[in-house]
Amino acid sequence: MDSQQQAQTAALHRIEAWSNVTETQVQTLTRNRAVGQVAFSASLLASGSGHTGPFNTDTTLVFRGVVSNIGNAYNPHTGIFTAPVRGAYHFEFYVFGSGGSHDSVVGLEKNGEHVFIAQQNYSHVKEPF
User: Which GO terms of the cellular component aspect does the record hold (predicted)?
Assistant: First the structure.
């Protein structure tokens, strides 16, 4: 093979590789655009009041009272939110221990890693009622 043909073959391989990368990027952008907006709002109980726990091991809390689930990224059966697109997400929850013998602890995990934890020590809780 002469040098001109080798150069053309190398250029063709670079163009094919670039085309594959571009196609992957277009597919990702198309998928992200199709998802649109993502948001959910939920409470632990579907209705009424009650207690959750205590648990002896780490337990995924399943928020049964789904108020909204735009984009269906929250699974109300598993309690897991899966972010379908890159972006900033805001999570907010409140911890209240009504006294007793157990601390109230809740944490947020991302891909199995602790992001943050909130705890209320039962020995410092005063009954509000």
Answer: extracellular region
Q: Domain spans of the chain?
A: 1-35
User: What is the sign, positive or negative, of the torsion defined by CA atoms of 61, 65, 70, 71?
Assistant: positive
What does each C-alpha distance from 14 to 5, 7, 18, 21, 110 come to in angstroms? 14, 11, 6, 11, 37
Do residues 97 and 103 lie in contact, with contact meaning Cβ atoms separated by under 8 Å?
A: yes
Of 82, 95, 88, nearest to 44 by C-alpha is 95
Spatial CA neighbour of 61 closest among 81, 85, 47: 81
Highest mean pLDDT among 12-21, 22-31, 66-75: 66-75
Please state, in angstroms and rounded to a whole number, the distance separating the CA atoms of residues 14 and 35: 32
Tokens of 122: 């039962």
Contacts of 60 (CB under 8 A, 6+ apart): 78, 79, 80
pLDDT at position 122? 66
